[in-house]
Design brief:
The complex is a heterotrimer of chains A (about 525), B (about 325) and C (about 270). With about 525 residues, chain A is of the alpha/beta class. Helix content of chain A is about 35%, strand content about 20%. The chains are: A alpha/beta (about 525), B alpha/beta (about 325), C mainly beta (about 270). Bound molecules: zinc ion.
Chain lengths: ~525, ~325, ~270
């Protein structure tokens, strides 16, 4: 079917296009204007037309997310809580905002099958997982032995078996250290019994990803998340990357100094400066927004420490070989000094990191805020007056601990399109997404500008997925099922018998017990879409 | 040849049985979809059917699962997986009944490393023993048996202690006491709980209900959205109170309340189905057909290849849903 | 002007959600609107007018004439006024109530007054499990107000009680006062099971109880305390006040945890 979106303002920075014009879609792709009449025509004059949005870091599936659903029956249905929506709502609400690809960034290979089942239950959008390594005994043994080739094979085998689009490490070594009763763990602390520092683990995994040609750089959840003064950790981590590609997850949670009377301040300006000076670094923000949420993290050491601040006062922690996880409900409050500083620090990062190709739009859903807060956050980035109105309602002593009140930058449409479309596609290695040039996947979001920008972003006027209109102003036009994007990196099969011996001796299990065959996810269609590695 | 389905006890075609099931469910005022001893495909299809007919979902072993879940969501807990237990546990405490004889009970724990295995027997004394044990660990000077002192010392000095229980056999307050003790221990050392999963893929079904509905069992859809109410949607209670008029049952055998209402039974081939108006024989998940099930040995969902390609609960449930003629 | 009155036509064929029958809600509605309120919990649509005959009146007081164990959520989240049921109710009567006066002149099902915040709940008959307790899976128990049951209560009365007063003039089922955080739970009759299990703080008074668990330690009783408590509760229940006149044994617990709760037993 040939579809024409006519007369919209097409904001497509990847193709250096920002002009009123037509967009043609056929067979799921964007095509050059043909000399035929369209089968279907949508007049989108007055609207902004962009590629479908891409979220690189949002906890939408997996056992930890599901535990959050089971943990909080009293919050479900209550106004303003979208911390752990069911799969159907995740797909529908993301699509309503014009997002068409969301990456679940924290799946332990041992529970990848459930994560993919949950992804398959999310309608409308495409999705992917990042596979988490860096705390499991087998990997740590390889790193300790300096077996970098075997490590790369192991990483490749794990990505292939768990259906990952990239490699993530979460407080590398921290969970293994915590399992051995360590309570604080920084970049150069050693994991007991292994004699390995977090730095060494991070570097080994970073290089394994590079060696395999994984498009997405190692996705790092660094040490000391959320602690006052942890900006030093973040700065040291940027240094530790030694000029090689590294993605820092939810950077806001590491942008804290220890200044001021309460020994808690925003150090976002310093951190942004360091990111600006380090072209190999990318970061997503993990913005905090106010309201009830639930923190879902595989940084079990950190979540153990956060239990005392749980609201409602309950939590579920899981310890296992590898990362485990912790679910701690939390309410960010405007009146709370610390929460207000966190909110300001996130916005500072957005506004002070100069290159929109290297800063990514996330709330670390649901850790900083549910993704349903995105429209409000986008509005804040585009409007300094709106920011000033919010700032006026927050504790002045908190705002004094941040440079935010002095920042005047406003995101332009083109920068929004880079940050939420073009840059994520490039970061994940997806040539056919994030732009609207001929050959691009026909995932398209159409927004009708209005004074209330948040309302505009919450319900896109029209959303196309694979060339078909799926939602209009939040209402479903037709059902649609996306796929999970995955890599299939090659590796030396010699790692298989070695893993088999290890799993048998350590767990009494076949090493294939956790693999995710396509037929386990969907017997009627291929649930996956392959993404090539760079080599 | 054995019948593929029964209508009022007489052999019938599968298609006729599916049509009859759809007719019963479609006309029901308050249908139950219960038993739910099925794989993940079956659970998801059951949820789809429940949505379509405004039905109630309950699992035959939900009571035990809810006891565990209520400790998690009313008090919080620190748990682990069979993987960590096998690899690292140096002290294991088996609490109450239903935990079998270590290490033969599922999840089997390969004795790869030296570890102590201690036991607190079930029975009327268990809640008091657990309370005393926790009090001893908290440093209270209370009279207690030598055995309790030994257990306390073992947990206190363990590097990786694990306490194992089966909620099907253990009172909720006892589980909460255990989890409170584990929490106390983690101030100074590491100790974790390992709740053993219930039968009938309970843990897997609970997970699927979670991601599909946003709630754990028990769930009802009569008012057009998912409602979570463990008391109201208890299938046995509803049957006794005459609140449901039709039940679709997935399990090894019919429940003892089957005579209380019209029954649609999805049973393994050859199971007696006296009293069911509609019976459709299906394969055993992971045995007669491929299936995704919660694996007690790993504590995670896993894929099991079956020996054949028998009819699955999911296929039947999907066919019934389509036969309803309700747009989905 | 007399009370707004709803008279039961016939025993309902399904459980009903009567959570909307609140004085403050009904005051804002016309009789026709009230009769159109949906009350079904199954696929069979049911309006209030199908179940009850309405006699308009001043909704500051709402009277339900005729009860059923299928009337759920009567007085749930009520914040003021008087709601009187001449008959039985089902589960969750008065749960999460914020104020007002709920009278049940019959038996109540489970979770009566669960999560109560404030107000008065009186049950003339028996109460089910989790009287003044928590709702399934939720963390917050009763946090204020008062509850009086003339008959007996089911299991786990006062579970996770945080503040307020619960008086059961009859017997309690298993495990009363489990996980109490504070507040006062008085059982004039007998109790069974693990009374006060996991109790942190608060006061649990029981008429007859064989023996507290081993993590409750006997300790002395300041004679002033029962007199103070008597003064506090006398307006609510003569039976409970009389219980405090008898000699009481005092225990502290649950020493498995914080151990600052007290259990007073009249006869053991
Ligand atoms: Zn995250």
């Amino acid at each position: 079917m040939l579809t024409l979106l006519s007369g919209g303002r097409i904001v497509d920075p990847a193709n250096r296009r920002d002009a009123i014009g037509d967009l043609w879609l056929e067979d799921g792709l964007v095509i050059a204007p043909p000399d035929r009449a369209p089968d279907e025509r949508h007049d989108v004059s007055g609207c902004i037309v962009m590629a479908g949005g891409i979220d690189i870091h949002s906890h939408i599936a997996g056992t930890n997310v599901n535990t959050a659903r089971l943990l909080l029956p009293e919050l479900r249905g209550s106004a303003g809580f979208a911390g752990a929506p069911e799969s159907e709502a995740i797909g529908r609400l993301y699509a309503a905002m014009g997002f068409t690809l969301v990456v679940e960034p924290a799946i332990s290979p041992a529970v990848a099958l459930q994560a993919h089942r949950e992804l398959a239950a999310i309608p409308f959008i495409d999705k992917a997982i990042l596979s988490v390594l860096g705390n499991e005994d087998f990997g740590l043994q390889l790193i300790r032995a300096g077996e970098h080739t075997a490590l790369a094979d192991y990483v490749a085998r794990t990505l292939a078996a768990s259906g990952g689009l990239g490699l993530k490490t979460i407080n590398p070594g921290g969970a293994a250290a915590f399992a051995r009763n360590v309570r604080r763990f920084s970049l150069d602390d050693e994991v007991p019994e292994y004699g390995l520092t977090s730095r060494a683990i991070m570097r080994s995994l970073q290089q394994a990803a590079i060696r395999l040609g994984v498009p997405h750089p190692l996705h790092l959840h660094a040490n000391n998340l959320g602690l006052p003064g942890n900006v030093e950790s973040a700065l040291a981590t940027i240094e530790a990357a030694e000029g090689q590609p590294l993605h820092l997850a939810h950077l806001q949670f590491y942008a804290y100094g220890e200044e001021g009377p309460r020994k808690f301040s925003s150090a976002a300006a310093r951190l942004a400066e360091a990111v600006n000076a380090a072209p190999h670094i990318t970061a997503d923000v993990g913005q905090v927004m106010f309201g009830q949420t639930v923190t879902v993290s595989s940084d079990v050491l950190r979540q153990f420490g956060a239990r005392n601040q749980a609201s409602p006062a309950k939590s579920a922690l899981l310890e296992t070989d590898g990362n485990g996880g912790g679910i701690v409900p939390y309410r960010y409050r405007k009146e709370n000094f610390f929460n207000a500083v966190q909110w300001a620090a996130g916005l500072e990062l957005f506004l002070l990191i100069a290159d929109p190709w290297r800063v990514f739009f996330t709330t670390d859903h649901p850790n900083g805020a549910p993704f349903t807060a995105y429209p409000d956050l986008l509005a804040l980035l585009m409007d300094r007056d709106l920011r000033a109105a919010w700032i006026a309602e927050l504790p002045p002593e908190a705002m004094a601990m941040s440079t935010l009140p002095a920042l005047t930058r406003e995101y332009a449409w083109g920068e929004i399109a880079i940050m939420t479309r073009a840059a994520p596609a490039r970061l994940l290695g997806l040539a056919d997404r994030g732009h609207l040039g001929p050959g691009a996947r026909a995932d398209v979001a159409v927004y009708r500008p209005e004074a209330d920008r948040a309302a505009m972003f919450r319900n896109a006027a029209l959303v196309f997925k694979d060339g078909l209109p799926i939602l209009r102003e939040g209402r479903v036009l037709r059902p649609h099922r996306g796929r999970a994007l995955r890599l299939s990196p090659g590796f030396d099969a010699a790692i298989e018998p070695r893993l088999a011996r290890y799993y048998d001796a350590t767990f009494g299990l076949a090493h294939t017990a956790f693999d995710v065959p396509a037929e386990a996810i969907d017997r009627t269609r291929d649930p996956f879409e392959a993404v090539p590695c760079r080599n | 040849m054995t019948a593929e389905a029964l209508l009022a006890g007489q052999p019938a075609s599968r298609a006729a049985a599916i049509a009859a099931a759809a007719a019963l469910l479609g006309a029901s005022a308050n249908p139950l979809i219960a038993g739910l001893a099925t794989d993940i495909d079956g659970a998801e299809a059951a949820i789809g059917l429940a949505r379509a007919v405004g039905g109630v979902l309950d699992h035959t072993a939900a009571a035990g699962g809810l006891r565990d879940l209520d400790v998690m969501r009313q008090a919080g807990w620190i748990t682990t997986t069979p993987l960590l237990v096998r690899a690292r546990a140096d002290c294991i405490l088996l609490v109450g009944d239903g935990v079998g004889d270590f290490p033969t009970t599922p999840p089997t724990l390969a004795p790869a490393q030296a570890r102590r295995v201690l036991r607190l027997p079930g029975g009327a004394a268990l809640p008091h023993s657990l309370a005393l044990l926790r009090a001893l660990l908290a440093g209270r000077k209370l009279a207690a048996s030598a055995a309790l002192h030994e257990i306390a010392e073992a947990l206190r000095t363990a590097q990786c202690g694990v306490v194992i229980w089966s909620a099907a056999h253990t009172d909720g307050l006892c589980i909460e006491m255990v989890c409170g003790m584990i929490d106390d221990l983690n101030r100074a050392t590491r100790c974790f709980g390992l709740p053993l999963p219930g039968p009938g893929n309970l843990a897997g079904v609970m997970q699927a209900i979670g991601w599909q509905c946003g709630f754990p069992l028990r769930v009802g859809f009569a008012r057009g959205h998912a409602e979570h109410d463990p008391w109201r949607f208890d299938a046995a209670r509803m049957a006794a109170a005459g609140e449901a008029d039709v039940a679709l049952w997935i399990g090894a055998a019919l429940p003892d309340w089957a005579a209380k209402m019209s029954m649609i039974a999805l049973l393994p081939a050859g199971t007696p189905a006296e009293g069911a108006e509609v019976t459709i024989f299906i394969g055993r998940p992971g045995v007669d057909h491929d299936a995704v099930l919660h694996e007690p040995a790993t504590g995670a969902l896993g894929f099991r290849r079956g020996q054949g390609d028998a009819l699955s609960a999911a296929a039947v449930l999907t066919a019934i849903t389509q036969a309803l003629g309700v747009p989905c | 002007m007399s009370a707004l009155c709803l008279t039961l036509r016939e025993a309902p064929a399904q459980r009903l959600d009567l959570s909307m029958l609140l004085p403050e809600r009904l005051a804002a509605l016309s009789p026709a609107e009230i009769e159109r309120l949906p009350v079904q919990t199954t696929r069979r649509a049911m309006r209030l007018g199908d179940v009850f005959r309405l006699r308009p009146g001043d909704a500051k007081e709402v009277v339900i004439e005729g009860g059923s164990a299928r009337f759920d959520c009567v007085g749930a989240c009520m914040s003021g006024g008087v709601l009187r049921v001449i008959g039985a109710v089902g589960q969750r009567a008065g749960c999460e109530m914020l104020g007002g006066h709920l009278l049940i002149e019959g038996d109540a099902g489970p979770f009566a007054a669960a999560g109560l915040r404030d107000g008065v709940v009186e049950i003339a008959g028996d109460a089910g499990d989790y009287l003044g307790g928590t709702l399934p899976g939720e963390r917050t128990g009763m946090a204020g107000g008062s509850v009086r049951v003339r008959g007996s209560a089911g299991a786990r009365a006062g579970d996770r009680l945080r503040r307020g007063l619960i008086i059961v003039e009859g017997d309690a089922g298993a495990d009363p006062g489990s996980r109490m955080l504070a507040g006062t739970l008085m059982i004039c009759g007998s109790a069974s099971g693990l009374a006060g299990y996991l109790m942190r703080r608060g006061t649990l008074v029981i008429g007859q109880f064989a023996k507290p668990g081993e993590t409750f330690q006997p300790c002395g009783l300041d004679p002033v305390f029962p007199r103070l408590l008597r003064r506090l509760i006398a307006p609510y229940s003569a039976d409970a006040a009389a219980m405090l006149d008898a000699p009481l044994s005092r225990f502290m617990g649950d020493l498995a945890g914080l151990g600052k709760g007290e259990m007073l037993i009249a006869q053991s």
